[in-house]
Specification:
Chain lengths: 112, 110
């Protein structure tokens, strides 16, 4: 089955700096890659997703890149703010409405 | 539209008991997936239901089961509870695109 690895497990950046989180996946059939943000005690919320026919997608300060050949995808957050502090999960799926395999999460802390 | 709702939000049970959790999807969403979240194992897929049929299944023992009703609401059941079943159980629903998560049910097994 699919296996998703996520790095780093913790990331501390200063406000205004950029943050990058990387994930690799194993199943070449995966074609949908969402990123979720989970604040303490809250539900995971989708922040951005990308499909295999796209190499990059951007939404304001957040961007995701996908390299299907190397089987890795990355989340980029620019101009980080304290409210970006949370745990971020990457995931992979063979379709948009089926089994999501999650990475182990990255705890991002944005310090003033 | 109203978001995904889960009931109850918190449960305390003892070993050997069984428990039933409920998930009501966003209107129009026919796919319901269940996930278990623990500090040690992270987010793990349990199963997915679509149009009252189990479409995908994760690697959990048979003590974990689920079903979906004609209105797309879904329930999951855990029988013969073990201490290790203590977790946040999340459901996620989907129309044909993104999965949206409910707030979860926090299950504590004593």
């Amino acid at each position: 089955g699919e296996n998703v690895e996520q790095h780093p497990s913790t990331l501390s950046v200063q406000e205004g700096d950029s943050a990058v989180i990387k994930c690799t996946y194993s199943d070449s059939a995966s074609n949908y890659f969402p990123w979720y943000k989970q604040e303490l005690g809250k539900r995971p919320q989708l922040i951005i997703d990308i499909r295999s026919n796209v190499g990059e997608k951007k939404d304001q300060r957040i961007a995701v890149t996908l390299n299907k050949t190397a089987k890795h995808f990355s989340l980029h957050i620019t101009e980080t703010q304290p409210e970006d502090s949370a745990v971020y999960f990457c995931a992979a799926s063979p379709s948009t409405a089926s089994k999501l395999t999650f990475g182990t999460g990255t705890r991002l802390q944005v310090t003033l | 539209k109203a978001g995904v709702t889960q009931t109850p939000r918190y449960l305390i049970k003892t070993r050997g008991q069984q428990v039933t959790l409920s998930c009501s999807p966003i209107s129009g969403h026919r796919s319901v997936s269940w996930y278990q979240q623990t500090p040690g194992q992270g987010l793990q897929f349990l199963f997915e239901y679509f149009s009252e049929t189990q479409r995908n299944k994760g690697n959990f023992p048979g003590r974990f089961s689920g079903r979906q009703f004609s209105n797309s609401r879904s329930e999951m059941n855990v029988s013969t509870l073990e201490l290790g079943d203590s977790a946040l159980y999340l459901c996620a629903t989907s129309a044909s695109d993104t999965q949206y998560f409910g707030p979860g049910t926090r299950l504590t097994v004593l």
